[in-house]
Automatic annotation (TrEMBL):
<dbReference type="GO" id="GO:0030488">
    <property type="term" value="P:tRNA methylation"/>
</dbReference>
<dbReference type="GO" id="GO:0005737">
    <property type="term" value="C:cytoplasm"/>
</dbReference>
<dbReference type="GO" id="GO:0031591">
    <property type="term" value="P:wybutosine biosynthetic process"/>
</dbReference>
<protein>
    <recommendedName>
        <fullName>tRNA(Phe) (4-demethylwyosine(37)-C(7)) aminocarboxypropyltransferase</fullName>
        <ecNumber>2.5.1.114</ecNumber>
    </recommendedName>
</protein>
<feature type="domain" description="SAM-dependent methyltransferase TRM5/TYW2-type">
    <location>
        <begin position="1"/>
        <end position="237"/>
    </location>
</feature>
<dbReference type="GO" id="GO:0102522">
    <property type="term" value="F:tRNA 4-demethylwyosine alpha-amino-alpha-carboxypropyltransferase activity"/>
</dbReference>
<dbReference type="InterPro" id="IPR030382">
    <property type="entry name" value="MeTrfase_TRM5/TYW2"/>
</dbReference>
<dbReference type="InterPro" id="IPR029063">
    <property type="entry name" value="SAM-dependent_MTases_sf"/>
</dbReference>
<dbReference type="GO" id="GO:0008175">
    <property type="term" value="F:tRNA methyltransferase activity"/>
</dbReference>
Amino acid sequence: MFSRGNIVEKARILGLESRFDGLNEQQLCQPVQKISVIDLYAGIGYFVFSYLKMGVAKVWAWELNGWSIEGLRRGCEANKWGIKILKVNNEGTVDGIDDLVETLEDDNLRVVAFHGDNTFATSVMQGIKAKMEARNSWKPIRHANLGLLPSSKDAWGTATSLIDPEMGGWVHVHENVNVHEIHEKRAAIVAEFQRLQSKHKLIHGHASSEVECVHVEEVKTYAPGVMHCVFDLNIQHSQISTGRTQDTIT
């Protein structure tokens, strides 16, 4: 589970390495303490803890492996961050959602970890969002982390559906890429996320959106000729300006 590349990416989220957009009030158009993050491949908390350290209100963590969930729990407890673990069954239902909503206003509950398949994340999270919006306590999801190799493509549609439909946000796409095809992969990822956004808009009637890759982080060599890259996508809806800039492609 340990990887030097993970250290670099953790530091990037913390603002200590390279570039990482969307964790300051100017770009968010709201305080970082008022947002939440979803990590669809949370593991033992590789990146969850960096987001928490940066002050986000809550991280919604999805993880299939029970041992990783236990590691995440221990890490949260060691840092004195409250964590609630919920089991997702094979039909995609989660017991204890109503009780969870009652406790979510506790500021010390920083992580909600779902032990199960993230293909159910859209329906589960939308149900929670509706209940919390009724209580005026929902913190919009402004970042989605997709840290699965060799590809996180199975979760791209889920991430698209969960980024806040009014304010937009950032999706961090981890992929293994041929070192000679990084620019081509960048364009292909943007095109696919734009297609997913357009489809989501048609179904749900949300504001039109623009997808842009604002940065590509070359994390580490995964194998000869293969680079572990993180593609930082900004999904910006028509009424929001984040003051973003894009890396120059050379």
